[in-house]
Amino acid sequence: MERFRLLENWIRTQFPDKSFTLSPASADASFRRYFRVTFSDGTLIAMDAPPEQEDCAPFLHVANLFTAAGTHVPVALGQDLAQGFLLLSDLGDTTYLQALNDGSDNVIAGENRDKKADRLYRDALAALLKIQLASQPGVLPDYDEALLLRELNLFPDWYLARHLKVTPRAAQKAELESIFQRIVQNNLAQPKVFVHRDFHSRNLMVTTPNPGIIDFQDAVYGPITYDLVSLFKDAYISWDEERVLDWLIRYWEQARKLKLPVASDFADFYRDFEWMGVQRHLKVLGIFARLNYRDGKRDYLAALPLVESYLRKACERYRELNPLLTLLDEWNINEQPEVKVGYTF
Protein backbone atom coordinates (compact mmCIF):
# COMPACT_ATOMS: atom_id res chain seq x y z
CA MET A 1 0.00 0.00 0.00
CA GLU A 2 2.92 2.31 0.73
CA ARG A 3 4.30 1.78 -2.79
CA PHE A 4 0.89 2.56 -4.25
CA ARG A 5 0.72 5.88 -2.36
CA LEU A 6 4.25 6.79 -3.46
CA LEU A 7 3.35 6.04 -7.08
CA GLU A 8 0.14 8.04 -6.88
CA ASN A 9 1.99 11.04 -5.41
CA TRP A 10 4.68 10.84 -8.07
CA ILE A 11 2.12 10.84 -10.88
CA ARG A 12 0.50 13.91 -9.31
CA THR A 13 3.82 15.72 -9.56
CA GLN A 14 3.96 14.84 -13.27
CA PHE A 15 0.40 16.07 -13.92
CA PRO A 16 -0.38 18.68 -11.22
CA ASP A 17 -3.37 20.09 -13.12
CA LYS A 18 -5.03 16.81 -14.11
CA SER A 19 -7.14 14.38 -12.13
CA PHE A 20 -6.74 10.64 -12.71
CA THR A 21 -7.59 7.20 -11.39
CA LEU A 22 -5.25 4.25 -10.92
CA SER A 23 -6.34 0.66 -11.55
CA PRO A 24 -4.37 -2.60 -11.87
CA ALA A 25 -3.35 -3.21 -15.48
CA SER A 26 -1.39 -6.45 -15.33
CA ALA A 27 1.02 -8.46 -13.27
CA ASP A 28 3.96 -10.60 -14.29
CA ALA A 29 6.33 -13.15 -12.82
CA SER A 30 8.57 -10.50 -11.25
CA PHE A 31 8.13 -7.96 -8.47
CA ARG A 32 7.00 -5.34 -11.00
CA ARG A 33 3.41 -4.16 -11.03
CA TYR A 34 1.56 -2.22 -13.71
CA PHE A 35 -1.30 0.25 -13.29
CA ARG A 36 -3.47 1.97 -15.85
CA VAL A 37 -3.59 5.72 -15.26
CA THR A 38 -6.90 7.03 -16.59
CA PHE A 39 -7.30 10.74 -17.36
CA SER A 40 -10.31 12.43 -18.89
CA ASP A 41 -8.50 12.52 -22.24
CA GLY A 42 -6.69 9.17 -22.34
CA THR A 43 -4.65 6.56 -20.49
CA LEU A 44 -1.05 5.76 -19.62
CA ILE A 45 0.62 2.79 -17.94
CA ALA A 46 2.56 3.25 -14.70
CA MET A 47 5.25 0.70 -13.88
CA ASP A 48 6.09 0.16 -10.21
CA ALA A 49 9.45 -1.61 -9.94
CA PRO A 50 10.75 -1.59 -6.34
CA PRO A 51 14.43 -0.54 -6.65
CA GLU A 52 15.66 -3.07 -4.10
CA GLN A 53 14.30 -5.88 -6.30
CA GLU A 54 14.04 -4.48 -9.84
CA ASP A 55 15.97 -2.07 -12.05
CA CYS A 56 14.18 0.09 -14.62
CA ALA A 57 17.35 0.93 -16.55
CA PRO A 58 17.42 -2.32 -18.62
CA PHE A 59 13.79 -1.72 -19.63
CA LEU A 60 14.63 1.74 -20.97
CA HIS A 61 17.77 0.45 -22.70
CA VAL A 62 15.99 -2.40 -24.49
CA ALA A 63 13.01 -0.18 -25.35
CA ASN A 64 15.41 2.13 -27.20
CA LEU A 65 17.01 -0.80 -29.04
CA PHE A 66 13.68 -2.32 -30.09
CA THR A 67 12.29 1.06 -31.13
CA ALA A 68 15.36 1.67 -33.27
CA ALA A 69 14.79 -1.76 -34.82
CA GLY A 70 11.35 -0.58 -35.98
CA THR A 71 9.12 -2.49 -33.58
CA HIS A 72 6.21 -1.25 -31.49
CA VAL A 73 7.05 -0.98 -27.79
CA PRO A 74 5.82 1.32 -25.01
CA VAL A 75 7.29 4.83 -25.05
CA ALA A 76 8.70 6.09 -21.75
CA LEU A 77 7.00 9.43 -20.99
CA GLY A 78 8.26 9.92 -17.45
CA GLN A 79 10.74 8.24 -15.12
CA ASP A 80 12.02 8.22 -11.56
CA LEU A 81 14.64 5.48 -11.40
CA ALA A 82 15.45 6.18 -7.74
CA GLN A 83 11.88 5.29 -6.73
CA GLY A 84 11.44 2.68 -9.46
CA PHE A 85 8.62 4.38 -11.38
CA LEU A 86 8.02 4.72 -15.11
CA LEU A 87 5.17 6.26 -17.07
CA LEU A 88 4.61 4.50 -20.39
CA SER A 89 2.35 4.79 -23.40
CA ASP A 90 -0.59 2.39 -23.19
CA LEU A 91 -0.62 -0.48 -25.70
CA GLY A 92 -4.12 -1.53 -24.65
CA ASP A 93 -5.31 -4.59 -22.78
CA THR A 94 -5.69 -7.27 -25.47
CA THR A 95 -2.85 -9.78 -25.48
CA TYR A 96 -2.41 -12.36 -28.22
CA LEU A 97 -3.54 -14.96 -25.68
CA GLN A 98 -6.80 -13.14 -24.99
CA ALA A 99 -7.44 -12.46 -28.67
CA LEU A 100 -6.96 -16.11 -29.59
CA ASN A 101 -8.89 -17.54 -26.64
CA ASP A 102 -11.90 -15.27 -26.30
CA GLY A 103 -12.39 -13.68 -29.69
CA SER A 104 -11.79 -10.14 -28.43
CA ASP A 105 -9.89 -9.23 -31.60
CA ASN A 106 -12.52 -8.63 -34.27
CA VAL A 107 -10.40 -6.68 -36.72
CA ILE A 108 -11.49 -8.89 -39.60
CA ALA A 109 -15.20 -9.72 -39.53
CA GLY A 110 -15.89 -13.42 -39.63
CA GLU A 111 -12.25 -14.36 -39.15
CA ASN A 112 -11.92 -17.79 -37.55
CA ARG A 113 -9.32 -18.69 -34.95
CA ASP A 114 -6.93 -20.34 -37.39
CA LYS A 115 -6.89 -17.35 -39.74
CA LYS A 116 -6.54 -15.01 -36.81
CA ALA A 117 -3.60 -17.04 -35.49
CA ASP A 118 -1.89 -17.00 -38.89
CA ARG A 119 -2.31 -13.23 -39.12
CA LEU A 120 -1.11 -12.52 -35.57
CA TYR A 121 1.87 -14.86 -35.77
CA ARG A 122 2.86 -13.51 -39.18
CA ASP A 123 3.04 -10.07 -37.56
CA ALA A 124 4.97 -11.46 -34.58
CA LEU A 125 7.55 -13.08 -36.85
CA ALA A 126 7.95 -9.86 -38.85
CA ALA A 127 8.69 -8.00 -35.59
CA LEU A 128 11.08 -10.72 -34.42
CA LEU A 129 13.01 -10.56 -37.69
CA LYS A 130 13.42 -6.78 -37.24
CA ILE A 131 14.80 -7.30 -33.73
CA GLN A 132 17.21 -9.99 -34.93
CA LEU A 133 18.39 -7.90 -37.88
CA ALA A 134 19.28 -5.08 -35.47
CA SER A 135 21.44 -7.37 -33.35
CA GLN A 136 25.02 -6.60 -32.45
CA PRO A 137 27.36 -7.99 -29.79
CA GLY A 138 28.31 -6.06 -26.68
CA VAL A 139 24.99 -4.19 -26.40
CA LEU A 140 22.99 -6.64 -24.28
CA PRO A 141 24.22 -9.16 -21.67
CA ASP A 142 25.47 -12.44 -23.16
CA TYR A 143 23.27 -15.50 -22.77
CA ASP A 144 26.38 -17.35 -21.64
CA GLU A 145 27.06 -20.77 -20.14
CA ALA A 146 26.71 -19.54 -16.56
CA LEU A 147 23.26 -18.08 -17.19
CA LEU A 148 22.02 -21.09 -19.19
CA LEU A 149 23.14 -23.47 -16.44
CA ARG A 150 21.74 -21.27 -13.68
CA GLU A 151 18.36 -21.44 -15.42
CA LEU A 152 18.59 -25.21 -15.92
CA ASN A 153 19.32 -25.73 -12.23
CA LEU A 154 15.94 -24.24 -11.37
CA PHE A 155 14.55 -27.60 -12.52
CA PRO A 156 16.15 -29.79 -9.82
CA ASP A 157 16.04 -27.05 -7.18
CA TRP A 158 12.38 -26.11 -7.52
CA TYR A 159 10.51 -28.51 -9.78
CA LEU A 160 12.02 -31.77 -8.55
CA ALA A 161 12.78 -30.87 -4.94
CA ARG A 162 9.83 -28.63 -4.11
CA HIS A 163 7.08 -29.64 -6.54
CA LEU A 164 7.66 -33.38 -6.94
CA LYS A 165 9.50 -33.76 -3.62
CA VAL A 166 12.11 -35.84 -5.43
CA THR A 167 15.72 -36.12 -4.33
CA PRO A 168 17.74 -37.50 -7.25
CA ARG A 169 20.08 -40.35 -6.47
CA ALA A 170 23.78 -39.73 -7.02
CA ALA A 171 23.71 -41.53 -10.39
CA GLN A 172 20.62 -39.61 -11.50
CA LYS A 173 22.16 -36.32 -10.47
CA ALA A 174 25.34 -37.08 -12.41
CA GLU A 175 23.30 -38.07 -15.47
CA LEU A 176 21.25 -34.88 -15.28
CA GLU A 177 24.37 -32.73 -15.03
CA SER A 178 25.83 -34.50 -18.07
CA ILE A 179 22.63 -33.87 -20.03
CA PHE A 180 22.66 -30.21 -19.00
CA GLN A 181 26.17 -29.88 -20.42
CA ARG A 182 25.07 -31.42 -23.74
CA ILE A 183 22.10 -29.06 -23.97
CA VAL A 184 24.20 -25.99 -23.17
CA GLN A 185 26.86 -27.00 -25.72
CA ASN A 186 24.19 -26.99 -28.42
CA ASN A 187 22.73 -23.70 -27.21
CA LEU A 188 26.11 -21.95 -27.17
CA ALA A 189 27.00 -23.24 -30.65
CA GLN A 190 23.98 -21.51 -32.20
CA PRO A 191 24.34 -18.13 -33.96
CA LYS A 192 23.59 -15.18 -31.67
CA VAL A 193 21.08 -12.35 -31.97
CA PHE A 194 19.08 -10.08 -29.66
CA VAL A 195 16.78 -12.33 -27.61
CA HIS A 196 13.60 -10.93 -25.98
CA ARG A 197 13.53 -14.02 -23.73
CA ASP A 198 9.75 -14.18 -23.21
CA PHE A 199 8.42 -13.55 -26.72
CA HIS A 200 5.03 -15.24 -26.26
CA SER A 201 1.27 -14.75 -26.26
CA ARG A 202 1.11 -12.91 -22.93
CA ASN A 203 3.77 -10.38 -23.93
CA LEU A 204 2.49 -9.60 -27.42
CA MET A 205 -0.37 -7.09 -27.60
CA VAL A 206 -2.90 -6.72 -30.41
CA THR A 207 -2.17 -3.16 -31.53
CA THR A 208 -1.73 -0.93 -34.54
CA PRO A 209 0.97 -1.42 -35.70
CA ASN A 210 0.89 -5.04 -34.61
CA PRO A 211 2.21 -6.46 -32.36
CA GLY A 212 2.89 -4.31 -29.35
CA ILE A 213 5.79 -5.88 -27.46
CA ILE A 214 6.12 -5.73 -23.67
CA ASP A 215 8.12 -7.32 -20.82
CA PHE A 216 11.44 -7.16 -22.66
CA GLN A 217 13.69 -5.87 -19.87
CA ASP A 218 15.51 -9.22 -19.51
CA ALA A 219 16.65 -9.26 -23.15
CA VAL A 220 20.06 -10.78 -23.88
CA TYR A 221 22.39 -11.61 -26.77
CA GLY A 222 21.98 -15.32 -27.39
CA PRO A 223 20.77 -18.27 -29.49
CA ILE A 224 18.76 -17.35 -32.58
CA THR A 225 16.11 -20.04 -31.95
CA TYR A 226 15.27 -18.97 -28.39
CA ASP A 227 12.46 -16.50 -29.09
CA LEU A 228 10.96 -18.91 -31.61
CA VAL A 229 10.67 -21.49 -28.84
CA SER A 230 8.98 -18.91 -26.59
CA LEU A 231 6.53 -18.11 -29.38
CA PHE A 232 5.69 -21.54 -30.75
CA LYS A 233 6.12 -23.71 -27.63
CA ASP A 234 4.22 -21.26 -25.51
CA ALA A 235 3.41 -22.35 -21.95
CA TYR A 236 -0.02 -20.69 -22.16
CA ILE A 237 -1.39 -21.79 -25.54
CA SER A 238 -0.56 -24.78 -27.74
CA TRP A 239 -0.58 -25.44 -31.46
CA ASP A 240 -0.34 -28.76 -33.28
CA GLU A 241 3.08 -29.66 -34.55
CA GLU A 242 2.09 -29.43 -38.22
CA ARG A 243 1.16 -25.77 -37.78
CA VAL A 244 4.31 -24.98 -35.79
CA LEU A 245 6.40 -26.66 -38.47
CA ASP A 246 4.73 -24.53 -41.15
CA TRP A 247 5.34 -21.31 -39.19
CA LEU A 248 8.95 -22.29 -38.56
CA ILE A 249 9.60 -23.01 -42.24
CA ARG A 250 8.15 -19.62 -43.14
CA TYR A 251 10.42 -17.93 -40.58
CA TRP A 252 13.49 -19.91 -41.75
CA GLU A 253 12.87 -19.00 -45.40
CA GLN A 254 12.50 -15.29 -44.56
CA ALA A 255 15.54 -15.34 -42.27
CA ARG A 256 17.69 -16.85 -45.04
CA LYS A 257 16.53 -14.20 -47.51
CA LEU A 258 17.45 -11.51 -44.99
CA LYS A 259 20.89 -13.09 -44.47
CA LEU A 260 20.27 -13.88 -40.81
CA PRO A 261 22.65 -16.61 -39.54
CA VAL A 262 20.24 -19.55 -39.52
CA ALA A 263 21.42 -23.03 -40.46
CA SER A 264 21.39 -23.60 -44.22
CA ASP A 265 19.63 -26.96 -43.78
CA PHE A 266 16.18 -26.81 -42.19
CA ALA A 267 16.70 -30.13 -40.38
CA ASP A 268 19.70 -28.65 -38.56
CA PHE A 269 17.74 -25.50 -37.77
CA TYR A 270 14.82 -27.53 -36.43
CA ARG A 271 17.15 -29.59 -34.24
CA ASP A 272 18.59 -26.39 -32.77
CA PHE A 273 15.04 -25.16 -32.14
CA GLU A 274 14.14 -28.37 -30.32
CA TRP A 275 17.30 -28.44 -28.20
CA MET A 276 16.84 -24.80 -27.27
CA GLY A 277 13.30 -25.76 -26.31
CA VAL A 278 14.55 -28.40 -23.89
CA GLN A 279 16.61 -25.77 -22.07
CA ARG A 280 13.63 -23.42 -21.87
CA HIS A 281 11.15 -26.10 -20.82
CA LEU A 282 13.37 -27.25 -17.95
CA LYS A 283 13.86 -23.65 -16.88
CA VAL A 284 10.13 -22.86 -17.09
CA LEU A 285 9.18 -25.91 -15.01
CA GLY A 286 11.56 -24.66 -12.32
CA ILE A 287 10.39 -21.04 -12.55
CA PHE A 288 6.70 -21.93 -12.40
CA ALA A 289 7.29 -24.14 -9.37
CA ARG A 290 9.23 -21.32 -7.71
CA LEU A 291 6.48 -18.82 -8.47
CA ASN A 292 4.02 -21.10 -6.71
CA TYR A 293 6.03 -22.15 -3.65
CA ARG A 294 8.07 -19.00 -3.05
CA ASP A 295 5.81 -16.24 -4.34
CA GLY A 296 2.32 -17.71 -3.87
CA LYS A 297 1.44 -17.32 -7.59
CA ARG A 298 -0.47 -20.58 -7.90
CA ASP A 299 -1.94 -19.98 -11.35
CA TYR A 300 1.34 -20.95 -12.97
CA LEU A 301 0.94 -24.59 -11.90
CA ALA A 302 -1.85 -24.98 -14.45
CA ALA A 303 0.72 -24.57 -17.24
CA LEU A 304 3.01 -27.37 -16.03
CA PRO A 305 1.37 -30.27 -17.97
CA LEU A 306 1.77 -28.51 -21.32
CA VAL A 307 5.44 -27.70 -20.66
CA GLU A 308 6.04 -31.28 -19.49
CA SER A 309 4.52 -32.49 -22.75
CA TYR A 310 6.79 -30.25 -24.83
CA LEU A 311 9.80 -31.57 -22.93
CA ARG A 312 8.92 -35.23 -23.37
CA LYS A 313 8.24 -34.89 -27.09
CA ALA A 314 11.66 -33.37 -27.72
CA CYS A 315 13.38 -36.03 -25.62
CA GLU A 316 11.57 -38.78 -27.54
CA ARG A 317 12.67 -37.31 -30.87
CA TYR A 318 16.44 -37.18 -30.32
CA ARG A 319 18.51 -40.18 -29.30
CA GLU A 320 20.98 -37.99 -27.38
CA LEU A 321 18.11 -36.79 -25.19
CA ASN A 322 16.70 -40.25 -24.47
CA PRO A 323 18.61 -40.43 -21.13
CA LEU A 324 16.64 -37.38 -19.98
CA LEU A 325 13.43 -39.15 -21.00
CA THR A 326 14.48 -42.11 -18.86
CA LEU A 327 14.99 -39.78 -15.89
CA LEU A 328 11.58 -38.17 -16.46
CA ASP A 329 10.03 -41.64 -16.40
CA GLU A 330 11.88 -42.52 -13.21
CA TRP A 331 10.57 -39.34 -11.62
CA ASN A 332 7.07 -40.06 -12.96
CA ILE A 333 6.82 -36.90 -15.06
CA ASN A 334 4.07 -37.96 -17.40
CA GLU A 335 2.97 -36.65 -20.75
CA GLN A 336 -0.63 -35.49 -20.94
CA PRO A 337 -2.82 -37.37 -23.45
CA GLU A 338 -2.70 -35.57 -26.76
CA VAL A 339 -3.01 -36.25 -30.47
CA LYS A 340 0.52 -36.97 -31.64
CA VAL A 341 2.08 -35.79 -34.88
CA GLY A 342 5.58 -37.15 -35.27
CA TYR A 343 8.56 -35.77 -37.17
CA THR A 344 12.09 -37.09 -37.32
CA PHE A 345 15.03 -34.94 -38.38
Automatic annotation (TrEMBL):
Provide the coiled-coil residue spans: none
Q: Which UniProt keywords apply?
A: ATP-binding, Nucleotide-binding
Q: Which domain of life is it from?
A: Bacteria
Domain Aminoglycoside phosphotransferase stretches: 22-253
A GO MF label: ATP binding
Protein name in UniProt:
Aminoglycoside phosphotransferase domain-containing protein
Q: Which residues cross the membrane?
A: none
The question of whether Nucleotide-binding is a record keyword is answered with yes
From what organism does this protein derive? Nitrosospira briensis
Name the InterPro entries on file. Answer: Aminoglycoside_PTrfase, Kinase-like_dom_sf
